[in-house]
Design brief:
CATH superfamily of the largest domain in chain A: Chorismate lyase-like
Number of helices of chain A: 7
Order of helices and strands of chain A: HEHHEEEHEHEEHEHEEE
Strand content of chain A: 35-45%
Oligomer: homodimer
Strand order of the largest sheet of chain A: 5-6-7-10-9-8
Number of strands of chain A: 11
Structural class of chain A: alpha+beta
Distance between the termini of chain A: 30 Å
Largest sheet of chain A: 6 strands, antiparallel
Radius of gyration of chain A: 24 Å
DNA sequence: CAGTGGTCTAGACCACTGA
DNA sequence: CAGTGGTCTAGACCACTGT
């Protein structure tokens, strides 16, 4: 009969959705709620904390808890490895390396990653296929100063993405989504028309303050990134 | 000197990032860790729970806790109201209604929102400007059966987005990102070229199982959605 | 200053699941 | 069956911050 934190969370949520506690209004404090639900304050606290994490309510000491004016809801996207993304759809995954070269970092990349003057980078062009159809084009740059082991990898069997997640366990990431156009080369890779709109993800990765890699992932025309909340 | 859950979380995290606990390895159980850090088990539990929420570790009863093989990291995007998005950049916000009409729902919309046969919808075309420059085009459809009050709103001063978040406190949302091309009309709105790539967000909203609204938000060419994690 | 949330504790019981 | 995480409790002290 005692309420669990999930019960409490669900009940508060329903009070908000049904308008019983309108946006901007003050919610009873934890002690009162604990008595209402017949549970310990920690239980209420956990429920409220999760609701606050979800962006539904706003909590301030002494001021109390309020329903957010504009529910600043957050969309969460899983950023999976391409292989997993494709195999999850039940399609067969195939990887192919199109080009591999060690060059000195171009200016735009140095700016983007905050690289110091001189520096070699490993530049890779890869394709990922789902059931034989082109799925994603990967334009990858790896900072050799940060990851000298990359020099000895040929990336013929395994894509750089999988190698990287296995090599660097954790890192700081900046990710950005945008829309672009298929140029001639991309059109060839995707067997699509030049000028087709393509969805693009760019990701910069640092590890312990040092730039590790930059990648531009271009999806085949028509790709969508979808989520619910 | 006692460790807080943040201390514990940070320490575990560093052990993972530094490779001391490699991916796939088993982490000591909560009781042992509590002793190590000189704190209560609940404290360790909270640290571990948050790490699991963040997708860094995987926990199973009896089996214990492991470092995830592929850190299934999640990107979280705030989905703000356009006005807030623009004003946060320090730009002046201006809204303008381009068209307003009540029509019977087109087939594609009925399919998209799971609408029943007959049904009128309010169709709005709006523009949002930042410092006078076109910023976002809003193609909005509102289900009048679900929101009869919409019929009496003229949406001349206030955009439908702000009206909706004030009217419906909370809802189920499906959101999807994609890349598109500017057609002739959009090119006029944005003063850009036909065929320019545009970033598009589509959002369907339900409330208590009933379809409320569908919107296609198109950003001016060059727009990026960026986040860190 | 006083009210509210933030966190910790020591202990307990339960739920799941691998061996 | 036994080990591990999941959750709850009753109480405590603290940190912040509005009045």
């Amino acid at each position: 009969m005692k309420a669990t934190y999930k019960d409490v969370k669900a009940d508060i949520l329903s009070k908000i959705t049904k308008g019983e506690w309108p946006t901007g209004s003050l919610i009873p404090n934890e002690v009162d709620l604990a008595e209402t639900y017949g549970c310990a304050r920690s239980t209420v606290n956990r429920a409220m904390r999760e609701l606050a994490d979800d962006g539904l309510i706003e909590r301030r000491r002494k001021a109390g808890t309020r329903v957010r004016m504009t529910p600043i809801r957050q969309a969460r996207f899983d950023i999976p490895v391409v292989r997993a993304e494709i195999e999850e759809k039940g399609a067969a995954y195939r990887y192919s390396l199109a080009d591999r070269a060690i060059v000195s970092a171009p200016d735009w990349l140095r700016a983007r990653l905050n690289l110091s003057e001189q520096g070699e980078v490993l530049h890779l062009l890869c394709m990922h296929y789902a059931d034989g159809d082109p799925y994603q084009h990967e334009d990858r740059w790896i900072n050799i100063a940060a990851l000298p082991q990359a020099r000895d990898e040929d990336f013929v069997q395994t894509g750089p993405n999988e190698w990287l997640v296995a090599t660097i366990p954790f890192s700081d990431v900046e990710i950005s989504f945008s829309a672009g156009l298929a140029d001639e080369k991309l059109a060839e890779y995707f067997a699509c028309a030049v000028g087709d709109p393509v969805f693009t993800i760019e990701r910069s990765t640092w590890w312990e303050g040092q730039a590790v890699t930059f990648v531009r992932l271009t999806y085949r025309p028509g790709h969508r990134l979808t989520t619910r909340y």
